[in-house]
Fold this protein.
Amino acid sequence: MLMLFRYSAMRFKGKTILAGSLGLLSTCVILETIIFQISGAYLGKLIETYVSFMVSLAGMTMGGMFVAIRRDPLTDHRIGLVSGIAIAFGTFYWLVSFSNWDLCLSQTIICFGLGGMLACALRQWFFEPPAHPRLP
């Protein structure tokens, strides 16, 4: 994920960025798994912990890669809009679904949106603002 942010220069060394991004990703995945387990126990929609962890990890990684690999750099406003819509739709889908497959899919959609927001935060913290060439 280090070299995938186009048009940006690194603020720190590569190892520092790698450690920070892996630490932030693992912290967010663990917190998201705990939140889904607690809310699932409260609402009676339990998923096994390892399944919830793997779904959170896959969704966060997909959302981060969606932001990092984009050919045209999206602005933070657009990333927030796409991520917010994904989180809102995934939350509604999670509330109305009862099968394990639907719960896993809705959790993946929610984590996709959160992964996009996480990648946006990583870009702001660890990389310089992108310098776009101006065309006359």
In short: Helices lie at 14-43, 49-68, 76-96, 100-126. The first helix runs from residue 14 to 43.
